[in-house]
Model the fold of this input.
Amino acid sequence: MIKLGVNVDHVATIRQARMTYEPDPVIAAGLADLGGADIITIHLREDRRHIQDRDLELLRETVFTKLNLEMATSQEIVDIALKIKPRQITLVPEKRQEITTEGGLSVTSQKKLLTEIIKKFKDNDIYVSLFIDPDKEQIIASEEVGAQSIELHTGSYANAEREEQSDELLEILNEAVKIAQDVGLRVNAGHGLTYKNTGPIVEHLDIEELHIGHSIISRAIFVGIESAVREMKELIYKHYTIKQNLLRSSSV
Done:
């Protein structure tokens, strides 16, 4: 069964709009856990636009599933992560001017740096994933620098306007999954996924985790975080069941 990682960054975004104490992403994480979240994901950005150091410290103490810290390769953030020791870190690209992460990490252009950083994390028993585009060169490089898993960037698929385009991008993602598994990497996926476009991802990709934030937090405004997470879990289960039934039918 595919696990669901819930990103609570946008709860902190609302809080930081007024620079106050609410809503608290730590409480949001607890409610997401009650709704069935398998993983809590946060991104500690260099500019601290949403998640703050205090949030990371409290979540490390209160998340009893798995805390996944998205982060850039800056020395400051690396040092913080090594001190706090989340269960998993996901290295992502980061630009000050972007609204959200715009694409995957370029592993091929910084292999020496990534090899050194990843070794530090693995030496401290911190699991390492890389957020990358579904590109063969980036996948191969991810294995070479020592990553244990990758998270495939699904943004292009999520933004596709035509069904045929979605199908083509889904096939690209599927091929990327196969390449990654062939070189021994575990595979996750995320970015831009919603209640409308997650089903085909579940049915077609052999992945372990889905990381979803904005869509779940948006739904939570109307139904609450616990219910919004539960709805996404039910959607994943529904499409996972469809996939298993089709596999059984094809093997008969």
